Amino acid sequence: MVNFTLWRSKMKVFNPADFAALIAIDWADRKHDVCELDQQNNETTFSVISAKPEAINAWANALKQKYNGQQVAVACELKKGPLIYALSKFKHIVLFTINPSTVAKYRKAFTHSGAKDDPTDAAIQLEILQQHMSKLNVIMPDTQSIRSLAQLVEYRRKLVQDRVDLTNRLSTTLKNYYPQVLDWFNEKDSMIFCDFLLRWPSLAKVKRARKQTLHDFFNLHNARYPNVNEKRINDIKHAEPLTSDNAIIGPNLLLVECLVGQLKQLMLSIERFEHEIKSIYKQHSDRFIFDSLPGAGPQMAPRLLAAMGSNRERYQSSEEVQKYAGIAPVTERSGKKEWIHWRYSCTTFLRQTFVEWAGQSVRYSFWAKAYYEQQKSKGKPHNTIIRALAFKWIRILFRCWKRKTAYDESTYLEALKRKGSPLLKYAMESKF
């Protein structure tokens, strides 16, 4: 998921003649190599600008003055990042993105030595921009709320993955000296688990705790299931140490205390992100569309809204969404051989969003469940089915999004019935 909309404009098809200059930038952390073609003089020049904001702003303003405010086309291998954020605020600059693999293949095909350097890459990008502009994606900012939401949901997803990784590391460490505690709590990414470990980070310490102290702790954390708590306390009483070697216990205990502190802070950070996401999402006029989607829920619905955006001209067909999200399959042929695979060139987070939603929809949508069971009965693997289901859901979502209508399961089922869909026949016969 990116902070800016990438689209191939159908409202306006750009060509090199629309611009006073064509510019390509080979970016780096500290400096950017620039290859600039002045269209009027047909002169190509090379320059280097610093990656500092002041230098980028000065360069962009100098372009405006040099070309009297006329539009210039700027190509870069970036879809987002500091350089894109800095240049996007200038109205005289139209940003094009070039896939880095395209540049690499172009270099390999037309640079005989195979040598790579930044000015050469900038020149290659300029040539691609000049000859294939109509095939390149244009970076267009969406509304502020959508851009904020896009970053927030992506950052939250990364924090959730960090939580998973940290929880796994914590579990691995506990197994070295205190494995019993893992059986006492079902959820390891919870405040009660963290607070328990901070108070009793070893078996020896928790065995010294009084029964009432343990009861008070569980009640304070709203763990008020008598049978569960009694079993925990009984298990603590009868637990035997894995090891008494302080050379093992000491270092692992210290690491557990550090990891638990990190985990608590991480969970609080995720809550902050969720609060901000909810605040932005509930104010958006398209919220009703995404709230109506089976399996979307409070976390997935904002991600889907950020994926589609507010600009109805961004996508002209569901096929564009499927391709951009990497859901549409790619068929390759060579001689008599044919094979199908994932679309590799896509935004991973965007693909994850649609695939995860499709997986959840099986639990909440009658036809999605029927489709899953139908394909499963044919011997199709789980991931293949979910990917195909995501492909179908994108078509439905696009129609709802384009028409600004909520999804209605009964309406869709009626449409399937009118078409004589074999899926409904399978659902009635199988009674899954």
Short description:
The chain has 432 residues and is α+β, with helices and mostly antiparallel strands.
What would you note in describing this structure?
The chain is of the alpha+beta class. It has three domains: 5-141, Nucleotidyltransferase, domain 5, CATH 3.30.420; 149-279, Helix Hairpins; 287-430, no CATH class. The chain has helices spanning 53-66, 82-87, 100-110, 118-132, 144-174, 180-184, 191-199, 203-207, 211-220, 226-238, 246-281, 287-291, 297-308, 318-324, 348-361, 366-377, 382-403, 409-418, 422-430; strands spanning 5-7, 21-26, 31-38, 43-50, 72-76, 93-97, 137-140, 330-334, 337-341. It has a seven-stranded mixed sheet with strand order 1-7-6-5-2-3-4. Strands 8-9 form a two-stranded antiparallel sheet. β2 (21-26) and β3 form a beta hairpin. α13 crosses α15 and α16 (366-377) runs antiparallel to α17. The longest helix is centred in the middle third of the chain and has 36 residues, at 246-281. It is globular and about 85 Å long.
